[in-house]
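can u pls check wat happens w/ nicotinamide-adenine-dinucleotide
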Amino acid sequence: MTEKLTHFIDGQHVEGQSGNFQDVFNPAKGEAHTQVPLASSDEVKAAIASAHAAFPAWSATPPAKRASIMYKFRELLYAHQDEIAELVSKEHGKTVPDAKGELGRGIEVVEFACGIAHALKGDFSESVASRIDTHTIRQPLGVVAGITPFNFPTMVPMWMFPVAIATGNTFVLKPSERDPSSTIRLVELLHEAGLPPGVMNLVNGGKEAVDELLSNPDVKAVSFVGSTGVGEYIYTEGCKHGKRVQALCGAKNHMIVMPDADMDKAVDALIGAAYGSAGERCMAISVAVAVGDEVADELVEKLVPRIKALKVAPYTDEAAELGPVVTKDAKERIEGYIQSGVDQGATLVVDGRDVSIDGHENGYFLGGSLFDNVTADMDIYKDEIFGPVLVIVRAESYEAGLKLVNDHEYGNGAAIFTRDGDAAHDFTHRVQAGMVGVNVPIPVPVAYHSFGGWKRSMFGDHDIHGMEGLRFYTKPKAITTRWPSGIKEGALFHFKAGKDH
Ligand code: NAD
């Protein structure tokens, strides 16, 4: 086992003091390779205190100067991308190209943060009344916290901290305890890029660490990405303590396949979107809604050989398409769902259980699974399985398919595959989801747009990154200025209509 991992507080690595450690596994081998410290609330308090002390100087640093550190950080991320991707793959299990892909999407947010001086420009109105002007500015909140999930250990933290820091806040990040090494590396590189100590802190841990972030009065806002149960708790607790909270949560993303769709393209899309990253993406397609039996039959016929041909292998095999799932528990949970689908009457067309890889017999591997004839009352339809399992629901019409999507408790992403402009237009208007794709299976917005779901896929008002992210991490201030005219007016004891101030 390699050395234990550390926290990163006030510009330096800090060893865990709580005495609590958790094993970090390589899921391809099923072996622990290091341990992560779980911070006590006192250790989290130290990180918050460091961020609090750094805030006055950092928030007073001109935005263009803050952005210059982001430029340097971006260069370092590219220079170290192979090393970072390897750390992601080793602890998460995803393939190396996939790990580089998530890093690339994170770098896009850093690029948005490089332009923060432009994005932070305020509004100005001249002569709102005689010799009076009004302008608005946006100012940082103070110390803000991020709590992130295992499935994107580099991209999701970078949805948060580049925008938060570039807008003048200081940050305390609590990454997933399951795969923290790549996230710690990002924080090291940020300091190599010239970030002053205390602006960015990282504490590892679980519930105790999170609860300190949620209740500490010096934390002004909390960004969370993770499962819905935890996200709802974070939202409720954070709001109870007067914080601004954005909590991006679980999903069950549907893709409607219309009879006029290009079926080969729809199948390509489903293979990548359902089985890529072993289905451990909040934007994975986990439900294909086939409009009509003919569409369903053709999808099954074309999907089955493709799923069976997926190369299930560890990230060290360059040909790998489907890596292991993250933990033994996750594997058992997914297998349990597959069994429940069978028990509740769905047709298991491809069974991805019982996969064994030579030399990796203890790895948490699963092949792709496919269910047909799934109905809305089954657990495999209702719940987020978060594994390489795709279910097909047969809908008798477009309207029935749309109703299915809109009745589901989640509303993160949704897609339609069709050549019909009317259907596509209707879908984009009426679907109850935050991110919508037309012939695009995983419609993750680029960094200068914003990411967020509807219904129980998100709690809070501002989406993440892009201008919504900027609004989340800043508060507006409107300043009204009178330019003395030399005319004495005396005191005013009542409001006057704007134009006669
Ligand atoms: P998770 O909810 O288990 O963990 C997320 C974070 O919360 C981690 O840092 C974890 O340490 C912390 N946490 C866990 N239990 C806690 C508790 N009881 N109290 C306080 N904090 C706690 O999520 P995960 O398994 O790491 O990630 C997978 C989930 O994240 C899926 O549901 C997926 O859909 C979701 N996700 C959503 C998005 C999105 O943008 N909507 C993006 C990525 C992942």
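The chain has two domains: 7-249+457-478, 253-438.
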